[in-house]
Write a structure and sequence with these properties.
two-stranded antiparallel sheet, globular, mainly alpha, 6 helices, two-stranded parallel sheet, 211 residues, single chain
Length: 211
């Protein structure tokens, strides 16, 4: 059929026509729309739950550690969104390029979904109990996200000294997260872990914004 293009042909110009006005969409925009939808759902989940907790503050038992994790995961979402700009140089959509960033986006969403509690219409909302029960799940999801980020870097980016350092940092952070899950009764480790994630994500976001 005339006008049909295959993503696997890197030598061809990647353009897609959308809408009745015939607006041109490049491969970068076409692909990142999917990633943005996944990330936006995660951000909406975090922000919507935060606003609901503020509205129902009189029946909420606050947890500082859970709040730290929620902020860390929020920054993770923003960091991934900024990272997605790196895909603007896409000229070919191979299975590796398609599934690796998508897996990262799904893991980022999983972190958001797991850290947001269900809010009942009536009764107390105990965030301390929620964190004690659910924290291993969103901590493991975060560790999986960091490990997948290392896999993506190896498969999609040239191996540079900066990449090796970033991979080492992400690997160490994943190890710290898993250790915190194993020894969940160590209070200072439970505070340190989300703080490290927050600092790492803030550094990444600031570097991207001023670059």
């Amino acid at each position: 059929m005339r006008g049909r293009r295959r993503f696997g042909c890197a030598s061809r110009e990647r353009r897609t026509r959308v809408g009745t006005a015939g607006v041109a969409m490049g491969l970068f925009e076409f692909y990142t729309v999917l990633l943005s939808i996944v990330i936006s759902i995660g951000l909406a989940s975090l922000l919507g739950t935060a606003m609901r907790l503020i509205q129902d503050a009189d029946r909420v038992t606050f947890s500082a550690i859970h709040a730290l994790w929620a902020v860390a995961i929020f920054l993770q979402q923003l960091g991934f969104w900024l990272k997605s700009w790196d895909y603007h140089a896409l000229t070919d959509l191979t299975p590796v390029i398609f599934f690796t960033p998508l897996s990262l986006a799904i893991l980022a969403y999983a972190c958001s979904a797991l850290v947001t509690p269900h809010i009942p219409e009536h009764g107390p909302i105990d965030l301390k109990a929620f964190h004690a029960r659910q924290s291993p799940r969103y901590a493991v999801a975060m560790a999986a996200y960091l490990l997948m980020a290392i896999v993506q870097a190896i498969m999609m980016d040239p191996m540079t000294a900066d990449l090796q350092i970033d991979g080492l940092v992400m690997g160490l952070m994943a190890a710290v997260i898993l250790v915190s899950v194993r020894w969940s009764r160590i209070a200072w480790l439970q505070v340190l872990t989300p703080c490290l994630i927050m600092l790492a994500q803030l550094r990444f976001i600031i570097d991207r914004l001023i670059a």
